[in-house]
Specification:
It comes from Ventosimonas gracilis. It catalyses: L-homoserine + succinyl-CoA = O-succinyl-L-homoserine + CoA. Pathway: Amino-acid biosynthesis; L-methionine biosynthesis via de novo pathway; O-succinyl-L-homoserine from L-homoserine: step 1/1. The protein has 379 residues and is α/β, with parallel strands linked by helices. It has 2 domains: 251 residues, 3-Layer(aba) Sandwich (Rossmann fold); 99 residues, Rna Polymerase Sigma Factor, Chain: A, CATH 1.10.1740. It has an 8-stranded mixed β-sheet with strand order 1-4-6-5-9-10-11-12, sandwiched between helices. Strands 2-3 form a two-stranded antiparallel ribbon. The model has no long low-confidence stretch (mean pLDDT 95).
């Protein structure tokens, strides 16, 4: 008997691959050729090709944003709460494109791909990526799909930074920019967290200078530590307290350094273990560096309003009260710059205790706000 999916699910989806032979010039001075992007689509592109929405993923995200790849798949795409018939990103109205960025480890060309110059995996030889590079590659994907202008580019965290960059790099090709839990650039504290995570990977004995695939190993310990450090910053103190408190795994303490005694310890180790089995260490380095490098205001001596002056899109920004990784003050910096630049901008600060991860969760006020905004822009 075939599986019946919920009415608001996009159901079964199949990833697609776009191949490009022309060299892609990168900000680091190198170029990449050939290269490919893996993506998924949901909904139908209208005859005017005016209803397309691009979804940009965050650090550890990928192309599988909604629906299921198999009938027996238990967990849907990472933003399934937002994408589907009747959901905020309504696939009855919009044609939605979600991709895995270059440098990723979910099918798009990245460090684990074969370098045509050597016949081996790129590993540490894969070029450093920037948000501008990703947006450039996404524009070429849009060309391939016959989309000259996005109805909206939407993303949370690092995805929100890509949405913002779209409004700067291709002002004529985006009508609405929706940046959620984002920032105009990383603070010193955020760069520091990323560096700690990178050092955990770089100093793992199994990293082998980034060429661990040739050795048949994975820098698992480094990846686990990097994920554990990162995950702490994604949750608020209140969220961790409510979820774990000082709960113990067993009835008594063991008084040693090796046992998993607290529930929060168990949770972090599980997250690290799961992550190390599915994510590429070189990709993690690339993604965190792209975060560090993002600073669009640098082109105008730190004046973000001048940088955004070229934008033609309407903007919607959202932040979450307990997000201390990208706090509301960082979103307000973008809002202030947009207002100084004379742009049309909406802003909502959502009271949510889940921390930075709130942008991934089905928080009613958040979903309602996103739904209201997108209803107003549907062709």
């Amino acid at each position: 008997m075939p599986v019946v999916f919920a009415e608001d699910s996009v159901g079964l989806v199949t990833p697609q691959t776009a191949h490009f032979n022309e060299p892609l010039a990168l900000a680091c001075g190198r170029s990449l050729a050939p290269w490919q992007l893996v993506y998924e689509t949901y909904g139908t592109l209208n005859p005017a090709r005016s209803n397309a929405i691009l979804i940009c993923h965050a650090l550890s995200g990928h192309h599988h944003a909604a629906g299921f790849h198999r009938e027996d798949e238990r967990k849907p795409g990472w933003w399934d709460s937002c994408i589907g018939p009747g959901k905020p990103i309504d696939t009855r109205r919009f044609f939605v494109v979600s991709l895995n960025n270059l440098g990723g480890c979910n099918g798009s060309t990245g460090p684990a791909s074969i370098n045509p110059a050597s016949g081996k995996a790129y590993g540490a030889d894969f070029p450093v990526m920037t948000v501008e590079d990703w947006v450039k590659s996404q524009a070429l994907l849009a060309d391939r799909l016959g989309i000259s202008q996005w109805a909206a580019v939407i993303g949370g965290s690092l995805g929100g930074m890509q949405a913002l960059q779209w409004s700067i790099s291709y002002p004529e090709r985006i009508r609405h920019c929706v940046a959620i839990a984002a920032a105009p650039r990383l603070s010193a504290q955020n760069i520091a967290f990323n560096e700690v995570a990178r050092q955990a990977i770089l100093t793992d004995p199994d990293f082998f200078g980034g060429h661990f695939k040739e050795q048949g190993v994975v820098p698992k310990r480094g990846l686990m530590l990097a994920r554990m450090v990162g995950h702490i910053t994604y949750l608020s103190d209140d969220a961790m307290g409510e979820k774990f408190g000082r709960g113990l795994k067993s009835e008594k303490l063991n008084y040693d350094f090796h046992s998993v005694e607290f529930q929060v310890e168990s949770y972090l180790r599980y997250q690290g273990e799961e992550f190390s089995g599915r994510f590429d260490a070189n990709t993690y380095l690339l993604m965190t560096k792209a975060l560090d490098y993002f600073d669009p205001a640098a082109t105008h001596n730190g004046d973000l309003a001048k940088t955004l002056a070229v934008a033609k899109a309407h903007f919607c920004l959202m932040s979450f009260t307990t997000d201390w990784r990208f706090p509301p003050a960082r979103s307000r910096e973008i809002v202030d710059a947009l207002l100084r630049a004379g742009k049309n901008v909406s802003y909502l600060e959502i009271d949510a205790q889940q921390g930075h991860d709130a942008f991934l969760l089905p928080i009613p006020r958040y979903l309602q706000a996103l739904d209201s905004y997108l209803q107003g822009i549907a062709p």
